[in-house]
Amino acid sequence: MSGVWVFKNGVVRLVENAAASEANGGAVRKRKALVHTPSGQVVRSYAQLESELRALGWERYYEDPTLYQFHKRGSLDLISLPADFNKFSSVHMYDIVIKNRDSFRVVDV
Predict the structure, then answer these.
(1) Measured between alpha carbons, how far is 91 from 34 in angstroms, rounded to an integer?
(2) CA angle, 64 as apex, 63 and 69 as ends, to 5°?
(3) Angle CA(37)–CA(52)–CA(68) in degrees, nearest 5?
(4) CA distance 98 to 109
(5) Angle made by CA atoms 63, 69, 72, in degrees to the nearest 5
(6) Quick one: pLDDT at residue 1?
(7) What is the 3-state secondary structure (H, E, C) of 68-90?
(8) Is 77 in contact with 4 (CB distance < 8 Å)?
(9) 20: which of 8, 30, 38, 86 is 20 to 30 A away, CA to CA?
(10) Kind and range of the H or E element at 33?
(11) What is the pLDDT of residues 12-55, one digit of tens each?
(12) Do 67 and 54 meet the contact criterion of CB atoms below 8 Å apart?
């Protein structure tokens, strides 16, 4: 049961997948991807991301098993990511980009 809940003329209804973009006024949600700028590669796993962040001086914290957390010495910055890569969203991507401006960017897929 996936789709979009639409409120129209006082009635709420669930619009399933394909029809969801029509119910949204034609708007289609674009998926985002995190790109490592120097290599041009799309980040597809936490192992790959951790490798790139370590090269930039980030250290991983292992205290909370429900999160991937990274800290950079000499700064107050902390990157916190959900342990499940499937829950890695554009909010997390932009957090990484802001803290590593020249090394990552977010693109539409």
Answers:
(1) 11
(2) 85
(3) 120
(4) 20
(5) 110
(6) 52
(7) EEEEECCCCCEEEEECCHHHCCH
(8) no
(9) 86
(10) strand 32-36
(11) 887 776 444 555 555 566 789 999 999 999 999 999 999 999 99
(12) no
Q: Assign 27 to helix, strand or coil.
A: coil
Residues 6 and 22 sit within 8 Å (Cβ to Cβ):
no
Q: Which residue has the tokens 């951790």?
A: 50
Q: What's the pTM value of the predicted model, to 2 decimals?
A: 0.72
Residue with tokens 């936490």: 46
d(CA 49, CA 93): 11
* Segment 79-108, tens digit of pLDDT: 999 999 999 999 999 999 999 999 999 999
Contacts of 32 (CB under 8 A, 6+ apart): 89, 90, 93, 106, 107, 108, 109
> Could you tell me if 106 and 97 are in contact, meaning their C-beta atoms sit under 8 angstroms apart?
yes
Distance CA 20, CA 87 (A): 21
